[in-house]
Write a structure and sequence with these properties.
Layout (H helix, E strand, L loop, with lengths): L10 H12 L2 H13 L3 H29 L3 H8 L3 H43 L3 H7 L4 H20 L2 H28 L4 H9 L9 H14 L6 H7 L7 H32 L14 H15 L1 H38 L3 H21 L1 H31 L2 H9 L9 H25 L1
Bound molecules: phenylalanine (PHE).
Membrane topology: Multi-pass membrane protein
InterPro entries: Na/ntran_symport, SNS_sf, YocR/YhdH-like
Protein name: Sodium-dependent transporter
Length: about 450
């Protein structure tokens, strides 16, 4: 272990960074739209259960792998491996996660770019540059390229500065801002006409749907995406935590923050849809389901903001700034996976490695932008529906079956003297060995 690899300087630094990774477009866009499309609170209930019973244990597996290994995902997994085949297997799992993170970043950066473009639109409108304002929210190719490049530039800028001066410092600045904006927006929206109907749609469960297999699959996918699992991200963030910290509690706190912010985002988006309806905007698709996905964020909400006059300009600005910030604290974590690998395994200087990998991923984004109609969904599907569950499952297999049991228990005990009296100690090791891999595999197979 090299002393110069850096790490989080404080507990709060880790919490902000890991929560920053977890909280992203998945929470503020994905979760509310999935909830709207899947029977409201029924989806929320299933999501909560799966997030704590499956995603949290898998999340802990990744954090522990990293903290034990004190290195990038491949090296950390290889440190747990004793036999040659295990080392090869470790490479496949670790590198697979890194590829997965890179692929996610390649499409995430495009969508984040759209968020940024919608954030600057009201600014151009206010200063009277209406034709530019129209252009930045058009489907224009150059506009897509420009904002993707801008967003990637910001991501690279932060990661070049390293863990403490980059990831930690910016997460500590951006996360409170994001939360503040979210709360302000909720207060504003729930006081508008029509919002109470939205709250009802959100919080009234249609219990009959709770056991629908498709709902389970969507909720689990959402939970895994949200906790950034199967992408090497939590392994590398785990590796930057001090051995003195109580990982079990930290992991639980991050999960709680992630789930709570998704819930709060629901309190914003779903009432906002019904406020839009009260203003005459259509919020139901032809088949009677609520409009979701990109048309919700880029059509329904902007129409709503437009209808609010000058206040709407401000609200729209705040909303898309919120989205952009949430996306940025996630995208930096995606880039850190491959960068830490290049730095530690190939001895490339961090700044150089960051720029190189950033450009490489940007090239993939550009290819996607040129073929946006089919490639965006395709890459997203490969990375999130196949890559993430498979790699996350293999991480559980690694922890349960390959890691020496005494080493594992020892790692759990670090920074946590009373852990042996608690539930985690008794349940988690066998749970991760048997229940997690099987449950993830079952849901994954169903999703095929
Ligand atoms: N968790 C992030 C979100 O919800 C996305 C993400 C996925 C971040 C994978 C890192 C790795 O938007």
């Amino acid at each position: 272990m090299s002393v110069s690899r850096g790490g989080f300087s404080s507990r709060i630094g880790f919490i902000m960074a890991a929560a920053g990774s977890a909280v992203g477009l998945g929470n503020i866009w994905g979760f509310p739209t999935q909830t709207a499309g899947n029977g409201g609170a029924a989806f929320v209930l299933v999501y909560l259960v799966l997030a704590f019973c499956l995603a949290y244990p898998a999340f802990m597996a990744e954090l522990l792998i990293g903290r034990y290994g004190q290195a990038n995902a491949v090296t950390s997994l290889q440190k747990m491996s004793k036999r040659p085949w295990q080392k090869h297997f470790a490479f496949v799992v670790g590198f697979g996660g890194i590829i997965c993170a890179s692929l996610i970043l390649s499409f995430y950066g495009i969508i984040a770019g759209w968020m940024m473009s919608y954030a600057v639109e009201p600014v151009f409108t206010v200063v009277g540059l209406t034709s530019i304002a129209e252009w930045v929210i058009s489907q224009d190719l150059v506009r897509n390229l420009l904002f993707t490049v801008l967003f990637m530039f910001m991501t690279v800028y932060i990661i070049r500065r390293g863990v403490e001066q980059g990831i930690e410092k910016w997460s500590k600045r951006l996360m409170p801002m994001m939360l503040g904006l979210l709360v302000l927006l909720i207060i504003y929206v729930v006081n508008q006409e029509g919002a109470s109907e939205g709250l009802q749609a959100y919080l009234n469960p249609d219990i009959s749907r709770v056991l629908e297999p498709d709902l389970l699959v969507s909720a689990l996918g959402q939970a895994f995406f949200s906790l950034s699992l199967g992408t090497s991200v939590m392994v590398i963030y785990g590796s930057y935590i001090s051995k003195k910290e109580n990982l079990v509690t930290l992991g639980a706190q991050v999960t709680l923050i992630d789930v709570s912010i998704a819930f709060l985002a629901g309190l914003l988006i779903i009432p906002a849809m019904y406020v839009a309806q009260a203003q005459g905007v259509a919020i139901f698709a032809e088949d009677g389901s609520l409009i979701s996905g990109s048309s919700l964020v880029f059509t329904v909400l902007p129409t709503l903001f437009d209808s609010m006059g000058s206040m709407g300009l401000f609200i729209g600005f705040a909303f898309f700034v919120l989205m952009s910030i949430a996306a940025l604290t996630s995208s930096i974590s995606m880039l850190e996976g491959p960068v830490s690998y290049a730095v530690e395994r190939h001895n490339i200087a961090r700044e150089k490695a960051t720029t190189l990998i950033g450009v490489l991923i940007l090239l993939i984004s550009i290819v996607i932008v040129f073929n946006i109609s089919f490639m965006l969904d395709m890459v997203a599907m490969i990375a999130t529906q196949y890559g993430q569950p498979i790699i996350a499952m293999l991480c559980c297999v690694f922890v349960g079956w390959i890691w020496q049991r005494n080493e594992l228990l020892n790692e759990i005990k670090l920074g946590n003297e009373t852990v042996e009296n608690g539930l985690f100690w008794k349940v988690w090791p066998w749970y991760t060995k048997f229940v997690c891999p099987i449950a993830i595999a079952m849901v994954f197979i169903h999703s095929l």
